[in-house]
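Researcher: Quick sanity check before group meeting.
Model: Go ahead. Protein one:
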Amino acid sequence: MCGLVGFLGGALWDDADRCRASLVSMTNALVRRGPDDADYWLDPQAGIAFGHRRLAIVDLSPAGRQPMRSPSGRYMIVFNGEIYNHLDLRARLEAEGSAIAWRGHSDTETLLGGFDAWGVRPTVERAVGMFAFAVWDMATRTLTLARDRLGEKPLYYGWQGRGRERTFLFASDLQAFKPYPAFRGMVDRDALTQLMRHNYIPAPHSIYEDVAKLPPGGLLTLSLADGNIRHETYWSCIDQYRSGLQSPYGGSSEEAVDALEALLKKAVARQMMSDVPLGAFLSGGVDSSTIVALMQAQSSRPVRTFSIGFHEKGYDEAKHAKAVAAHLGTDHTELYVTAEQAMAVIPRLPEVYSEPFSDSSQIPTFLVSQLARRDVTVSLSGDAGDELFCGYNRYRVVAGIWDRLQAKPLSWRRLAARVVTSISANNWNRILGLMMPMLPMSLQFADVGDKMHKGAGLLRSRSLDDVYLNLTSHWLDPASIVLRSREPTPSMMDVATQLDGFGNMQRMMALDMLLYLPNDILVKVDRAAMGVSLETRVPFLDHEVVEFAMSLPAALKMRAGTTKWILRQVLYRHVPAALVERPKMGFGVPIHDWLAGPLRDWASALLDESRLRQEGYLEPGPIVRCWKEHVAGKRNWQYPLWNVLMFQAWLEHQKRPVS
């Protein structure tokens, strides 16, 4: 795990000292992504510069240092991530007679050996891993940027400056752009509407004008000869879904469980490759428990596991994690966090998330990463189990209700939605909370009030795509609160047009895999972990596991109202069902209570009407109205308000000088 940065072209090359100083400053902005080492490479004749910060994980020797040149001398690379099958690739090169005298055992050196033998794209297509890299081809004078299939590792790029100053910048983090003299750093108001809608800014957009994110599974090439950018997709999530629908898995349920367990074991074994201490996050839920169980089954010593707990009722999973850890025999560490400790993280968020991001579970994610980093440098996680195996409650609701509900008149449904939202989420929690223990486990939900309010969006919807957009939107008309903005076509609408022939449940899962997972979940985990120099790995996103999951019939994912049915069968071979069977709980914190209580002064300052008006990005009226209703306890506006607060906190952080 590392951080990379670079630039191509621009007038800065007229002053060699200033050019190198800028590269060093840009690279140092990534120190948390790579605290162990730094190095630089500049080619003044071509006008290309690379910088690299290293978090040493595999091959800790100088032989793993970057930027690194290929054996032939043709390619120069800066690389972030891990290639889990790189030893297999080395064996393949040796079998073909293309192997070189390896200097070390880093996966970066393996990639370069592949580039020399097979070319860049064929090597990427053979690689299993998470990665982002930039590679300069000295023969063709072409820059190539690449990102892993599912979007675990970030990569930003864009042209900045005009005329002779026009420069192509690229980096793992937006912080690295700021020291470059031609960087403008103008807020993209249209992209800001997407933050207000979703709590994240989806690729290819970013918070800055003329800066984009490389999409998952993407390759970008830029030729020095003509300055033209060419985009390719070497792996497509949608294509894999279509392939799975056209050629679904045809074995029995038992055979499917066996096959999934074998693939997951292989993925976990690959991702346990490390020359530094390694552990895992453990919440005690199905996903993380499965990963830890398969780690422990293949380890000769107790696996290090980490969880955090909260004293607030409804937010504590630590006791469940402890029970699973005891059963599996892991070396478990837990930390109960006070509200004061959790809230102390909030001032750090604008720096940790260099682009505004407002999924409030970023707070516990940072805390558990901080806990793990005390003892390990790498941690595996159970992320993506919900998206792959039908884990979210919304899949069950849509599968069970939407087909029947859409037959009802829209006017009737809109009236019912008004009735539901006339009662606050807190009151719904009180009313229905008493009933939950009497219902079957499959019908028990945490935070039922919030789900009732989200369900009202389902009642108002004209189509399944409307349902999804409503369920994943915070401000329903974000352009109305972002001044001088025009919301781009929602990303899900672009994706939805490519999902013809998908069933309702499959359609929602595909939208989550393509949008929510890479732009929210993976961003949240990567930035939080990198904020404490911890590498995270996601075995469920081994693309062989993903492709198999996409081929499974829906009946193997949800059966008799039970979500993640096939994954549960794998887990039950290692952990008793009683230890993990409980209502699904989000990994969150009580933001709604904190905003009306201990965070009230902080939030009031950021949401001050005159301040909002002076800054000129947001329309104060609707925001101030929601804030007053929230503080008065009339409505729970935690999610829309947190979107605004995280932008405001980020904006305030941008006023600080670059260190």
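Researcher: Fine. The other one?
Model: Protein two, sequence then structure:
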Amino acid sequence: MGVHALKPWTELVKLHPDVESGNLTEAVFAIDLGAIAVGDPNTPLVYRDPDAFFAATYVTSDLRRLLEEVLASLAGRGNYNRVLKLRSPFGGGKSHVLAALLHAARSRKTLNQFPGLRSLPDPGPVAVAVFDGEKFTATGDKDVGGGQKVHTMWGYLAWQLGPEAYKVVAKHDVQRVSPAGDEIKAMLQAPGTPVLLLLDEVLKYMERVGAVTVGDSTLQRQAMDFIQNLTVEVANSTHAVMVYSLQWSAREALGNIALLEQLDKLTSRKDQVREPMTGDEILAVVKRRLLGADPPEEVAQEVAGEYAAVVGGFWRARAETPSARQDAEEQAVQLRARMKAAYPFHPALIDIMNSRWTSVEGFQRTRGALRFLAACLYSLKKKGGARPILGPGDIPLSDPDVQRAMMKDLDPGQEYSPVLTHDLIGPNARAKQIDDRLAHENPALAGVRPALRLATAILAYSFGGLKREQGSDLLPPGVTETELLAACVGPDLDTITASAVLAELRNSCLYLHYDGVRYCFKKDPNVTKLIEDAEQEVARDPNAVRERIKEMLQQRLAGKA
């Protein structure tokens, strides 16, 4: 089946109502655990309501296992770790996982609506306490209603567990002094039901309370002592579980690496690290949040087959040995499966965000990534121009909203504005000039716009470095020709045409750099730009240039004399 039989994804895929309506603020994709816990009506229903939450959540195998462990532990069954630490990379959504545990514990009956979750343990009524370190003020005095205020992490957790629990630590809360182990044990037993403690953004809170003095100590030291004692008591309990989140890396730790390591070591003897999403499950997670329904399976299979055939043929053509040809065959099979799972996205686009952009400081792994993809979907659905899939070369950069969503974290200083203007989407951009000429020579390429597709993909690969197979350092930003073509070619663009267009881009673009291995857009111009600037200078004042050349020749001759 040829390209003309493949319809744009916009005709076949239903978007999530948030995306369809253009409600693309980052707040829509941000989990506010504290607001969910108190039922804040300003929180989007998709996060606040347990039915809507699980309907929009793809429950990965690791998340399901985590739900099973936590619910079983709350029910007093199994021999699982009762203190669990979440550290998840791109799209892992630590806050999303904590929200899933919150809803599962408070509304276990909701899980019965989903066949894969019905068999999970039912612990009965559970007392849930949530601490959101991003929201809790360092100075305390948090108004909890009824004229009452709490002042510390332990005071707020205990207050949520009920009056009897708060009574145990009331004095410690007022004096901002950490309760001892026996008192924490009594606090956990006070509700008379299983207890689930969910702590989010602990590091941010710990950093702020370092400036609050408590006698000869600080509130940070008291909070550290509380966390350590709490993990011990929860681990030794029979019906309590504590799940908390930490930043994934030192880069995310707001520069306070020492505090991150200290907090990590405090609980390392009792906790067990969980990564609630691994591998290609990111594809299903993204689709569940951004799409209104699963795309038709037969469509996904057809599109995946067409693209895998083209890319597989490209790989096989470059294979020079029997072993390489076998590898190419296996790669093609894997690509077909991944493309079917990712449809309407090209897996290469998700890989770029997951493996490259996450190394860019400031890139919002979950909310920023979802908002960017949502902006792409909304723009192509509303304004047209979609192809059978949405790949790295199909990012509609001419849409200001898409451009802002992509470059907000990747290029906060807007240093790549000249790149966009001169090489990609400006009225006289080099990619546009190539595409216009190709369309004139071959009208079949008018809607393909191969130069813009390749240039857009290169730009996407130009931020963040891919981790080396050996070691922890990163490769330089950029993309090899093989990787680029595999991400851009398809039933409408063959590899011969794409290779020829890539050569034109290399010779004409002003900010495209090629080191013999990788293509990469950089904020600094290449030699083409320097030559053109020199030519323009000559054109403006040829007499001055001739005089300067004459002067240089005279100096050269004088030096030889």
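Researcher: One line on it for the slide.
Model: The first strand starts at residue 83 and ends at 86.
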